[in-house]
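Forum: Protein Structure Q&A
Topic: Joint prediction for protein chains with partners

I've read a bunch of threads here and the consensus seems to be that you should model interacting components together rather than docking separate models afterwards. I'd like to see that in practice. Below is the full input, 358 residues plus whatever partners are listed. Could one of the regulars post the assembled result?
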Amino acid sequence: MHFWNHPWPWYIAGPLLGLTVPLLLLIGNKPFGASAIFRHLCAIVIQKKEWKYFKYDWSKESWNFYFIGGIVLGGAIAATLIPNLGELKLHPYLVDLYHGLGINDFSQGVPKQIFNMEGLRNVEGIVFVLAGGFMVGFGSRYAGGDNSGHMILGVARLNKPSIITTACFFVGGYIGAHYIVPFILKVV
Amino acid sequence: MKIRTINRRMGKSESDIEIRSLSRSFSLPDDPHPWSTALMYVLVGVLVGIVMVKGQIISWLKVQEMFMLKSMQLPLTFGSAILVAFISIVIIQQRKIKTLEGKDIYFPRYKVTKGNYIGGVIAGVGWSLTGGGPAALFAMSGTGAVVMGVALLMAMVGTWMFGAVRDSLP
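Posted by a regular:
Agreed with the consensus. Here's the joint model:
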C-alpha cells in the first residue's frame, strides 16, 4: 500500500508522463498539450468577427475535450482512491522561508490558507489565483503552447520554438518564485 | 482546401503547436471520433491526471522548490518525461509507425516568434503563482480544488484577451 498512498518518485512519474506523447500520437497523431482547450472554449463562446484568432472550426479538435476531461477525471480518481498521505517533504530553506511569511500548513502540498474560495478576496488570492491564472492562459496562448505542449512534446521533438519557450517558462518561474511570491506574502 | 482558407483568414502565420487542424501541412482529421477512440483519449487524460497528482506536479510548494533551485524532483520528472517522449518519437519515426487508423505520424514545422519569448515568460510567472500549467490546473480542479476552477476561468479570460489584442502584439 505504500506505493499507492505516497507520492511517486520522479523515475516513475516522469516516464509515465512522457508516455502520454507516443500514446496520443499512436491513437490519432495528436499533440500533447492542455492550453489549446482555452482557445476552443473561447471559439465556442465568442462570436465577434474581428477577432480572427477564434474563427476556426473547433469541432475538428473534439479529441481535445475528451483528453482534458480525462485529466480532470484522473485528478479526481487519484485524490479519492490513491491520495498522497503523510507530511510533504520540503527543503528546509523553503520551510523556513514560508514559515517566516506566515504559511504554516504544508500538509496538502498547497497552502490551503491562500488557495481557497474565501481567499479570493485577499491580495494573495487575487495575485496567485486570478492574476496567475490569467497569465497562464494569456502567456501560453501567446507562446503557442503550454508546459505539456512545448516543454514535454516540443522539446522531445527538438522543435526550436518549444526549446526557446521552455527556457522562458523557467525564466518567468524563477522571477515569480524568487521575487513576486515572497513579495506578495510579505506585504500582505 | 478548407484549412488553407482558414489559415489565410487568420492573418498571422500559425504558431499554435497544439492545434493540428490549423497547420498548413495537415490533412483533415477524422472527427467526430468513434466512441472507442474517444474513450482512449479519455484514458490517456486519466493517466496524465493521476501522474500529476502522484508525481506532485500539482503541488504549489514543490513547484516553488523547483524554481528556487532547491530540489531536483520536478526537473528530473520533466527531464525523464522528455527523454521517454524523445525515444518514442525516434522509434516512431525510424520504424515509420502509423496511427491505429493507419495514418502517418508527423509534425508540422513552426517558426520562432516573439510570442515564444514574451508569452513564455508570462506563462512562466503564471506557473509559479498558481503552481501549475494548464494541465496541472485541470488535474487540481479534478482533485476538488474549486478555487483552481476559478484559475482556469481566468486562463480563459487571458486567452480571450490575447485573441482580442493579438494583432497589435509584437
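Residues 1-83 of chain A form one domain.
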